[in-house]
Each structure stands twice: as C-alpha cells, then as structure tokens.
Write a structure and sequence with these properties.
By secondary structure, this protein is α/β, with parallel strands linked by helices. The chain has two domains: 2-110 and 230-247, 3-Layer(aba) Sandwich (Rossmann fold); 114-223 and 264-297, Response regulator (Rossmann fold, 3-Layer(aba) Sandwich). It has twelve helices and eleven strands. The strands form three sheets. A five-stranded parallel beta sheet has the order 2-1-3-4-5, with helices on both faces. Helix 5 packs across helix 12 (278-291). The longest helix has 18 residues, at 230-247. It is elongated and about 55 Å long. The protein starts with a helix and ends in a 7-residue tail after the last helix. It comes from Marinobacter adhaerens. InterPro entries: ABC_transpt-TYRBP-like (IPR007487). This is ABC transporter substrate-binding protein.
Length: 298
C-alpha cells in the first residue's frame, strides 16, 4: 500500500516536472495543428497544457512554448522569469532575447537562411551570378552576412536602397535590370501583403523571377522558396524541451536541419523556365552548403 502510494507520488512529481505550457498565436487552426504535432512528437514523456494570456503570469514551473512573435511577446511581458521556447519566429526577432537570457529563451527559427534561398535560385538558374536585393536603411544589416558568403558560391549581390514607399517600384525596376533574379528576405517593410502583388507583377512583366521570402509568397507568385517543414520544427522543439528538462537550460536558437522547396510551376511555365523537381533543387542546395561547411551554422 505504502509502496503504491510512493509510486503514485513519484509519478505525479515526474509528471509535474515534465509539463510544458502552450501559448497560442490566436489563429485557432494553426494553434491546434501545432498542439497536435507537439503532443504526437512528445508522446507521454511531456504533458502539454494550453494556457490563456491571463494564465501566463501565474505559471511558476515548466517552460512555455509560444507560437509566433506576438505570443512570445505576451508571454515574455507577463512572466519574465519563465523559460520560453519560441516557435514561428525569425532569427532577427529572437536572437536579442536569447543573447540577453541564454538558456532561458530560445527558438526554433522559422525564417530561411538567405544563403540557402540564394542557392535555391541558382539551382533553378545555374547560370545566375548576380543577385538583386531590396532593402531599407533599417534592414541593410540583414543582408551583410549573405553578401560576404556569395563569392564562395560564384555569385555576388547588389543592394538597392528603398528610401520610401513611393520609391519602391522605381527602385525595384533598377534592381531587376541588374540581377539575374531578385532575392526577397523576410523584410516586412518591403515584402508585405500591401506591396507583394506590385513587386511580383513588376518582376513578371520584365521576365524576372523572385525567390523567397517564404513558402506563402510562392502561392502569391514568387517562383520558389525553401522552407522548413512543420514536422522538422516540432522535432527540434522536442529535442530542445528534452535538453531543458535534463539540464535546466535550453540550447541556443537554431534552424531545423532539413529544408524543402516550394515552387510555382505556373510562373515557371509563363517565363519559360525549366524547373527541376523540388527534391532535386533541395538536394543541389544541400550539396553546395555541405561542400562549404555551411549546413551546421546557417
């Protein structure tokens, strides 16, 4: 009897010690999809409890998994002592928090490394050597690591600065005249729902392709983009949680190991561009990155 009670007590302690909380994005279908994937990946070893914004401040044990930048910001402001694992966030968003609170704040990075996106374009256009980039004064820094890496892969890039909204299309036209393709980064000041249609139509009319910035933009008319599949991100999140429960600290933010490629076959046909298969494009990119030691530290 006492032994059974002790086992129950130990089991309850382990259950408490292995509980993670989920703060959603507010997009119900997305949140439920993430919860289902997380529960399936974690199995019985970690309990996942969904919490509301009002409950965040009351949590005093267990890490919080957040979905998207807004959910992370709410959790961080409500409970600054809580360990947080951020999903669906870009490197530029989470890095500062993680640097200031190493081990407490981490993320599975959602954006795609720009060198991978550049090589995605080159896998489709093997003759490409010049890449056009659009940036604002605030986002120039985003492209510097890419520009430094490109010569290793036989490419170069030129940055075209957009001074204000009225200058976007004229600057884009100059950029399209320079580059073999336009590489779009996760720069919301330039690439957003209000501007993307105009950018894509302008490129299309000049028989130029746009690579990136995300899988969603491929559906809108970008030719291709690499992306990390949700199962890969969830697997990494599970690894991060396991490390946290074993050591009390999260690993640093990181990209998933495997990426896939989304393509817009209709755009390719319209521009008379022969498209390799998505698998072939991804494999070409991986080979290039592996040969230059980039995969581990993208």
């Amino acid at each position: 009897m006492l032994f059974a009670a002790f086992c129950t007590f130990v089991s309850a302690q382990e259950s408490t010690a292995r509980t993670a909380f989920f703060a959603g994005s507010g997009n119900a279908p997305l949140d439920q999809h993430l919860v289902q994937l997380l529960k399936a990946q974690m199995g019985p070893t970690i309990s996942l409890v969904e919490v509301t914004e009002d409950q965040l401040a009351t949590l005093d044990s267990g890490p919080i998994i957040t979905a998207g930048p807004s959910a992370f910001s709410r959790a961080r402001q409500a409970n600054r002592s809580a360990p947080i694992l951020a999903l669906l966030v870009d490197k530029s968003f989470i890095s500062g928090f993680a640097d200031r609170s190493p081990g407490q704040i981490t993320g599975v990075l959602y954006d795609v490394p720009l060198i991978r996106q550049a090589l995605t374009g080159k896998a489709i256009l093997p003759q490409a050597t010049k890449i056009a980039l659009l940036a604002t004064a605030d986002s120039v820094e985003l492209y510097e690591p890419l520009i430094d890496k490109l010569p290793t892969y036989g490419m170069s890039a030129r940055l075209f600065l957009v001074d204000d909204d009225d200058k976007l299309i004229p600057t884009l036209v100059r950029a399209l005249g320079y580059g073999d393709f336009l590489l779009a980064a996760p720069d919301s000041a330039i690439y957003n729902p209000r501007t993307i249609k105009h950018i894509l139509l302008t490129a299309y009319r000049r028989n130029q392709i746009v690579i990136g910035p995300t899988q969603a933009y491929v559906k809108a008319g970008s030719l291709a983009s690499s992306y990390a599949p949700f199962p890969e991100m969830i697997e990494m999140a599970d690894d991060f949680l396991t490390t946290y429960f074993e050591t009390g600290e999260f690993p640093a933010p990181s990209y998933p190991e495997d990426f896939r490629v989304e393509v817009n076959a209709q755009v390719a046909r319209s521009l008379n561009i022969p498209l390799p298969s998505r698998e072939d494009i991804a494999q070409r990119v991986d080979r290039q990155l592996t040969a230059n030691g980039e995969v581990a530290d993208e």
